[in-house]
Amino acid sequence: MAGIRVEKKNAEAVRAYLKAHKLMDKQHCVFSRNSFIYFPMLRPGAGEMAHLKKLGAEPTDAAFMRQKMPRGYRDALLKELGMRGYEKAVKSYDLVGDTAIIDARHGLAMKIAKALSVSDRRIKRVISKAGAVKGSFRTRDFRHVWGRKGYEVEYRENGILLSLDIRKAFFSPRLAYERKRISDSARDGENVVVMFAGAGPFDILLAKSHVHDAVVAIEMNRDAHRYHLRNIALNKVANVVPILGDVRDFGARYRGFADRIVMPLPRDSHHFLETAAAMAGKRCIIHYYAFAGKGEPYSHHLELLRSFFGARGRKVRILLKRIVRTYSPAEDEIVIDFMVY
Length: 341
Hints:
This protein is of the alpha/beta class. The chain has helices at residues 11-20, 46-54, 71-81, 87-91, 106-119, 176-185, 201-209, 222-234, 273-279, 299-310; strands at 3-7, 31-33, 36-40, 58-60, 66-68, 92-96, 99-102, 125-129, 142-147, 152-157, 160-165, 191-194, 214-219, 240-244, 258-263, 280-293, 316-326, 331-340. The strands form 4 sheets. It has a 7-stranded mixed beta sheet. A 5-stranded mixed beta sheet has the order 5-6-7-8-9. A hairpin with a 4-residue loop joins strand 17 (316-326) and strand 18 (331-340).
């Protein structure tokens, strides 16, 4: 469990429950966005999670890997900087393997890196974001700040090992809960298609957890595909078919093949529904990711899915819908699980 989020009006009741049951993950940040408070958690039992849901909490990836800098270091650094407005940059960072990823301008970045190197001995390298996610491969530029050179990382998650260059293949540790959730929901013996497979985080976990599944994973980024092949070997999975190419070119080859389809491309998944429809078997479960505006995040996409498949003589049964994370002040990333039959 990465964390939970709850409306501010219910936050104190949730905080008290987490504290009383020793479920708060003290290595990560509690933070607020819009009308919600986000709590990082240790893994709760089923009964504890059920009670938290009654208090208005819901699971989220947003808190995942937001590492907390010890307050003493943070306060000392802010005092040294003598500036306001940097609290967020100093307060948290993403940890991918032994690499801390921060978001700060160059002068501040070096000071943050020095503080991190003292406060967290796991960190051997600090890099900073140097631009927004861009292009069809969803990559971004980074800048080396401190520590060992290079941008290749090794990262363990949910029992698998992933190797990749973070400049060349899209990867977010904050989707770890989604990857585990989908793997846990899969059944043995399924035929699975993972679109936009990247370096393999979704398909390798599925294949390793369900050795009798046949998993087809398609990616058009050559660099990501190269790391995908490496990660398949690192994790010794024999039931993944890694394909380099545009997923739209494989609808006919895998027509009616899939019992489950994963579509983790939130900006453009709707452009690939025709391919998903071709690949979907008689009772196929599809995990559809999208960006959506605040307020009514699901209504547009639910109407789109029902209309699209209805026009092709198929029905849609909604199995789950949830906000995965806040993406920007105006948008959330959502997921809709549905069965098409």
